[in-house]
Structures are given as C-alpha cells and as structure tokens.
Amino acid sequence: MHNYKISSYLKIIFFISLVSIISAFLIEYVLGYQPCNLCLIQRIPYVLCLILIILNFFQKKNEKFIILLLIFTFSFSFLISFYHFGIEQGFFEESTVCKIKDASDVISKEELLKQLQLKTVSCKDVTFRVFGFSLTTFNMAISLILVILLIRIFKNYEKFKN
Q1: What's the CATH code of the domain at 151?
Q2: Are residues 78 and 140 in contact, defined by beta-carbon separation less than 8 angstroms?
Q3: How many domains does the chain have?
Q4: Global pTM value
C-alpha cells in the first residue's frame, strides 16, 4: 500500500463513489433498466460516503471518526450486496423489501395487497450485466476493497496523516 496522505485516499474513494452513483443513474435513466428495491438501497452508502467526505474536506477535526463511519458504511454496503447476490444466485429467498414498490405509501392491508399485485422488478432477476457480472457483484467487490482500504487507513492513521 502506497504511503499517500489520507486526503488522497479519500479523494479516490470519493471518485469511486461518484462514478458508482452516476453509473447507476445512467443505467437507469439513459439505458432504461429498472432497478429493484435492493439496487436502490445499495445506492445509499455511496451517497452517504459522498456527504461524509465532503464534510471531512470542510472540517478536518473529526477525520478519524469520518473514516470509521466510512468503514461502517461500506461494511453495510457489502452486507446488502452479499444478500442481494445470494438472492440472485438462489441462496436466499426474496424478502418483502424486494416485493413492495414504496413501503412509505402502504398504510392498510388493502393497500399492501394492491402493492403486492403490481409488477415490480424482482431482486433475483439480473436486468443489466457487465462482462457477465451483475452490478451487485461489482458493488460487493468494490465495497469489500473499500472496507479493507479504510481499515488499513484507520489502523495506520498517524502514519498517513502527515
């Protein structure tokens, strides 16, 4: 691992997160591939990462805490991706998250039944692949790499700080 400054690593992580979010929106809105609910949830850690790194660049006094938050953020991202990958591969059953389009609108059991009858994109159906891999597979790999990198930065914080 190169001895870059923490700010350099955070800029790289920011760039990776920004490219990931932009790619997801391009695939959805330009190419027309509809994401499932877990795909939408998998975007949250990247948006949170962008916010945390922007906050860090304006206020550096909590940098080590921000790095710790990023570790938890991408650990969550890895777990969600792993779960989604398991659903795609048939290892896990789809949960209710995969079947309800917008849970905030569901108030009564009649509305819940109506939601379940609507056609939504299934979490087990891979609608978009790159080199034969689903985007969930890429997200799982990216999240794992970022967790490992961030743990190394956190453990060696004093060494990379200068």
Answers
A1: 1.20.1550
A2: yes
A3: 1
A4: 0.77
